[in-house]
Amino acid sequence: MRINKFLADKGVASRRRADEMIQACRVTINGELATLGANVEEGDEVALDGRVLSFEEKKLEYYIMNKPKGVVCTVSDDRGRKTVMDLLPEGVGRVFPVGRLDYATEGLLILTNDGDLSFRLTHPTSEIPKTYMAKIEGTLTEKDLNPIRSGVELDGVLTKKCKAHIVETNKAYTKVHITITEGRNRQVRRMFESIGKNVQLLKRVSIGDLKLKGLDRGQLRPLTEREVAYLQGL
After folding, report:
1. What pTM, to 2 d.p., does this model score?
2. Mind listing the pLDDT tens digit for each residue in 98-134?
3. Which residue in 97, 114, 120, 179 could disulfide with 73, CB within 3.0 to 4.6 Å?
4. Domains in the chain: ranges and CATH
5. What DSSP line would sit under 153-187, residue for residue?
6. What is the pairing mode between strands 199-207 and 106-112?
7. What separation in angstroms does the CA of 162 have from each of 27, 28, 165?
8. Could you give the residue numbers annotated as active site?
């Protein structure tokens, strides 16, 4: 088994993050620093930051959270900010967030210790649709959304075509549902900034057909077997 898959299976991190840990010299195999692409098998001693990881099967856990704004999607934060891990109730195992919502964004977040699922959901080639509710300052028309639908330039690269439509509008603000298949840094906010509009509130409301409902801000619940099967099939 590849070392990054082993680390993902142990719930340490996604395969991509596991590769970063290996490059940072945090992983050893039988006392020697691990290298990218190395294989491990039962009987090998694998350690992360000196802590030996067992080859025993672990219980896979899957949760959905309504992440509030003002919380970071990391296991720990070097600036001392509250993380989503601080919101987990007792009894939840060692899980980690799948992907990220930025500090000021709220809404649907998946947490799990299934590294393979995390890898599939976050890999750029998956192009899984994610829908957000964006509350935009001032008025906005359907025509104003055409550049966003077609693709705007961020960091010299056009965003992929997306879906966007107005769900509510008045003189003070306009609410838009926007569905993207990418995950660039602060992408939705920057897309609206590119057409001169400021996002007052941003909330992720669905990932594919998995919708955020019935959860107050900061609450989470286990995913059902059907929901897990759906995500594994994306």
Report:
1. 0.79
2. 988 999 999 999 999 988 898 889 888 889 999 999 9
3. 97
4. 3-53 (3.10.290.10), 62-125+210-232 (3.30.70.580), 129-207 (3.30.70.1560)
5. EETTEEPPP-EEEEEEE-SSEEEEEEEES---TTH
6. parallel
7. 40, 43, 10
8. 102
